[in-house]
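Notes from the pairing session

We agreed to fold both candidates in a single pass and log them together. This is the raw record for the first candidate, unedited. Please don't reformat it; downstream parsing expects exactly this layout.

Candidate A
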Amino acid sequence: DAGNNPVDQPNTHYGDAEEQDIIGFLNGSFPINDDGSTSFYVFGGASRREGVHGGNYRRAIQAQNWPQIYPLGFLPLIEPEIVDYSGTAGIRGVAAGTWFWDISAGYGHDKFDFNITNSLNTSLGPSIPPNQTEFYAGALEFNQFVSNLDVTREVEVGLAGPLNVAVGAEFRHENYQQHAGEVNSWIAGPSPDRAGGVAAAGAQVFPGFRPSNEVDDSRSSYAGYVDFEANVLSFLRLGLAGRFEHYSDFGSTSDYKFTARVEATKQLVFRGSVSTGAPSPSSSSPPASAPPGSGAVL
């Protein structure tokens, strides 16, 4: 970038980002009565993922660079750490020989930490310290507990196949959090940029979440549903479901889902669905906005 290399050097990342994952799963089922009609089951998983994702290269002559820190410019990197785990346990069985029932409870957690490396906060000046090249920019977190009761059976009603009838109830509790980053990841420091203008605040490539961006929202919901599905013709399967749900944060909603499956040939199948639903806690929470001139664009 500064003319020191006789051959132009690559200054960006192409293709898939570097990634390292550790993932594990568990799945099991165990009969709890003599005839095996009732069983206890459990399944779940856990993972830790780390990645390295490059933004746009900052050339040495650009105003947001300090050549005292990066004489040839720099490629800022986002290195996320994602921890995810969930588990579900339940009991299922058969009642009266025709009704299949299932009761379960599960918990899930996901946290996404934003680590910024090979970067700088232009507004902190050309010296280290007070400037730095690595920042913790905050995190997003989601937690959910859900419990279900489902009952199903098949009924002959004169169609091409039996009508599957299902009814059920659900309780769900959700929590969404947004955590602030370290101060230097978002602060607008006292230094102008090298051109004398207002310096971009926050870490280059991803300014951190501010304390004013922090969110800790929870809600609970109670729901009941009914579902019908059957092969109405030998090649056509239709489904219709309705769900009533009451949310602690915005009230009640009634939703539906319609599905269709057309088997044109044994080798060619068309499927489609249309449905309504309620927003998730993260989509209904206030957005985390970067400050003006923060250089948030990759």
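Candidate B (folded immediately after A)
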Amino acid sequence: QTSKQETTENAISGIGFLNSQVAVTQKNFNTIAGDTFFTMSSTNSSGVEITATDESKLEPGNRTVENVTLAKKMVFELGGFANLTDTFTASLTVDFGSWTEAAGTYTFTDADASTSTSLSFTDQTVGEVVGLINELGDIEAQIVDTTGEGTNYSIILTSDDTGFENGFRILSDGTGDAAQDARWETPADPAAHSADNTFSQLSSNASFDLDGVSVTRKKNIITDLIEGASIELKSDFTDAATVGISRSESAVRQTVEDVIFSLNEFKAEIDRLTFIDLEGDENGPLAMDPAVNSIKSDFKKLAIEPINGYGEKSIYFSQLGIKTDNNGDYFLDETVFEKTFSTNPEYFQALKDDNLAASTSSATVTKSPFTQIAVGSYTVSKDGDQWKFGDTNLTRFDYNGGSMFTSTTYPGLVIKTAAAEPASFTIYSGESFATRVADLMEQIVEAGSPLKNSEETYKTQSTDIEDRLKKLEEREERVADGAERVFERL
């Protein structure tokens, strides 16, 4: 029983070591999933910057940006308040839209003429009115002491968002005192208005040339021009600036080496725990555990099975230069690595980036973080009057002159095409090697897993053996006492 107890305790300890290694390996591959393979650059970093948003969609190259005018928020000043204690009463409406100016006269175009927001107050101080304006949610108001002497204040009103149509207009609703309402209005002719109300800045779109093509956007961070990257406009400028995307061989190599190191680290630990001593009695603590040997088998399969969902062809470890020696340890084949990096560098993305992409540049595909699509290839095509995503139905909507498709089978999946009736194309769904390893590690230690069940079994066995040993000790004491009495009688 003592021997059994030692074996059981060693198994429990071995599972503890395995759990610890699982946590390390999972952390390593979560880190690998965040590695960067691309270098982003700008020849005018104070004017424009480029940032990667999805490395799986990036393509190396340079783009030219010039003639930049930033998108702006509307800024309006209500000036001339002598103190902050005076109270005001007004009955106003607030609308949102765009302003244009010509010869000092401003013209407002309402973005939604059917909707207005009410702003009414009675006997409110300047600070209280500012609070009411801020509660509207689309305008920010702040008080500024313009001279620093406490005798002249302005209220600065700023729209929440940039963009030509994100301006605002404040007018009397016609039910209150016109003179008091006028104190808070945005007038079409500020010069002729009775109060110190002036336009400081009109809302406007960003405009610039990208590779010679004129572009406008509502915001200064643009995410829909370069796939997988965002452009941030930081200042106005006219001269051409170049933003570049380049794949870093050294970064890719480092990730491959990190993958090899982490695989060998896990392999070494599970080999130690499941070691079978054919010539002696020095087996590893988990040598005969079926759950652990199953984990060992699943782990080996990860590096053998192809990585699919990154195009028509499968990707194998051997193509990336990751190979095994006679002992099953992983090493880097430099020649194969360099050849693949030269001919198919995109293959290495499968180590760290999950993939969801279309086979044609005229289609885009996105999904929510909670949408689960199995690894594989799915043909988008029209079968009679029904559009299909593989074998499941799609629902089509008109969208910007093209089509948008959604699916009840895959909620959160959105496919957009430039053509209203696109020719058949393919959607690829791929799971990175880093995700596969991290998922396996998660499955190993989750509640109800075979390993957790084994651990509970060993703990139960240990408790049972402790009870048996205690009973044996009690029996030993009784036998010893009986023997002592016999000797005393003799």
